[in-house]
Design brief:
Mean pLDDT: 95
Domain Thiamine-binding protein: 5-97
Shape: globular
InterPro entries: MTH1187/YkoF-like (IPR029756), Thiamine_BP (IPR002767), UPF0045_domain (IPR051614)
Helix content: 25-40%
Strand content: 15-25%
Organism: Parolsenella catena
Distance between the termini: 25 Å
Order of helices and strands: EHEEHEH
Number of strands: 4
CATH topology: Alpha-Beta Plaits
Number of domains: 1
Family: Belongs to the UPF0045 family.
CATH architecture: 2-Layer Sandwich
Pfam family, one: Thiamine_BP
Largest sheet: 4 strands, antiparallel
Length: 102
């Protein structure tokens, strides 16, 4: 795994909190279709995998939000890319804080 990305999608023209949640849920549902080990947090979703797949997911997030009715979407991404090795996994970074969940 050479890449991890934290993705935050913000629908800029949502009519309500419920509408924002609907759009974000559609984006998360799309992310879950990929083999990228998604970790959903309250402000962003982290994914990890090979670089090309992570970049495809990032692109698709914006398109799905637009397809869900957003006229303007702001997407913030933090990308950790290590072309000749492995990046730290989400489990390695935060797993000890979530032991016993689920």
């Amino acid at each position: 795994m050479e890449c991890s990305v934290a993705i935050q999608v913000l629908p800029m023209d949502s009519a309500s909190d419920e509408d924002t949640i609907r759009v974000v849920d559609a984006v998360i549902a799309e992310i879950q279709k990929y083999d990228v080990n998604p970790y959903v947090g309250p402000f962003e979703t982290a994914i990890e995998g090979d670089y090309d797949t992570c970049m495809e997911v990032l692109k698709k997030c914006q398109l799905v939000a637009a397809e869900a009715g957003c006229g303007q979407v702001m997407t913030y991404a933090k990308i950790d890319y290590k072309p000749n090795g492995a990046v730290l996994t989400t489990e390695k970074k935060v797993g000890k804080y979530h032991q016993g969940e689920n």
